[in-house]
Design goal:
Shape: elongated
Order of helices and strands: EHEHHHHHEEH
Distance between the termini: 21 Å
Strand order of the largest sheet: 1-2
Radius of gyration: 14 Å
Strand content: 15-25%
Oligomer: single chain
Helix content: 40-55%
Number of helices: 7
Length: about 120
Amino acid sequence: MLTVYGIKNCDTVKKTLTWLQQHHIDAELHDYRQQGITADFLQQVINSFGWEALVNKRSTTWRNLDEQTKQQLNPNNVIALLLAQPTLIKRPIILEQNLQLIGFNEKQYATAFGVK
C-alpha cells in the first residue's frame, strides 16, 4: 500500500487521494499533523527534492511568519522550522522505493503510475 504524507483537510491531499482511488491505487494517508513527522523523514525528502521544494511558500502559515524567519531560512534550520510548523511542508509527499513525488500534478501522477 502506498503512503501519502500530508494533512487530511488539505484540498491538494484530498484531490490526490481521490485521483489514486479513481485509478485503483491503494493508498493510505499519513497525516503528519496528527501522526507526526520526523527529522529523518524530512531529511529524506530534502535529499530527494531539495529543501526549497519542501517549504510551501503559498501557505497561510508562510505568509504569517515574520520576515526575519523567512529571510534566514536555510538548509541548517529548515528542518527545525518544519517540525515546529508542519503546515509549512508542501504536500502531498510520496516516497516509495521507485516513486518520489511532491505536490500534485495529474500528468506527473499519470506518468509515474503508468495511467493513460
